[in-house]
Amino acid sequence: MKLKPSDPDRHYSLTYPMEIGAPKFELVPVEKQKDIMINVARLHAQQEYERIMEMVAVLQRQAEQLKRRLDITDMVHKCEYKFQVVHNQIYHLAFDFKLQNHVLLHLGPNEWTTGAPDHIEYIARVKWLGDYTWTEVIDEEVIDK
After folding, report:
1. What is the number of domains present in the chain?
2. Beta-sheet strands, E only, within the chain
3. Which residue range forms the structural domain that includes residue 107?
């Protein structure tokens, strides 16, 4: 459809004023508009970047905790013990220099009546979880919750 100069719809389709009484037409400061747009875009992108980096930090902590849990599990499965272990029970993982091996003990370093033996070096307090992995316990709380 071609608009004629006398057609009233023509006034709405043009980007500039057509009559003497028309609203004032101002040029848009394109460079200023571009600066505002790029600043807003950078602000939103920076916020999204920071949110993603927070999630990455959480995932890194979880991965480190899982790696520690697997390391503890490997040490416990390689160690010697002569008792039946029970789920959710706290034990003590140590290295016995006489046996040259890791050992799992009921007693912690402060629970011996005559003091801990000199040939044992305590590594961690551990708990056997329901998924058959072992986790380190600090102050009665599992660290990888």
Report:
1. 1
2. 90-96, 101-105, 120-128, 134-138, 141-142
3. 28-142
